[in-house]
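note to self — DONT lose this again. spent like an hour looking for the file last time. sequence + predicted structure for the chain T wanted, 163 res
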Amino acid sequence: MPVTMKKAFSLLLALLLLTACLAGCGKDDNKNPKAVDLTKLSQAIDGGGLFTDTLSPLDQDTALSLYGLLSADVVKCVANCSADGSTPQEYALFQAADEAAAGRIAQAANDRVTMQKTVYYSYAPEQLPTLDGAIVETSGVYVIYVCASDAAAAQAVIDKYVK
């Protein structure tokens, strides 16, 4: 092989190796989402002025029943809902057993929003905009569901802990 061909081949090989190395150093938040401290996120949501209603805490078993979830899918749950049911305002924060379980939990949260819309449509239609702003967000094994009177502020609080 002539010297110029060897140099060109060596240069091409070096460029390919450099490209491969740089591609391996890229950050992919979807594959390695950061851990979410559900207790701290709950405290931030509670203290964020996001709700016009008084919320009451739910124990994990009650929350799982409310959302129709299997205990095997949930490692940890922090949930609060309207104390008297007069509004759909609530939130539930989940750490799932794995990403497949997180998908099932997110679907259950979306199903809850749909069911609440049906209930509040005839019961208190003025609450429908609150439900339209409901947030269901998944990050790895974490699922965050918030139905608040101030959806934009709720999203800002979530982003501080999840993004």
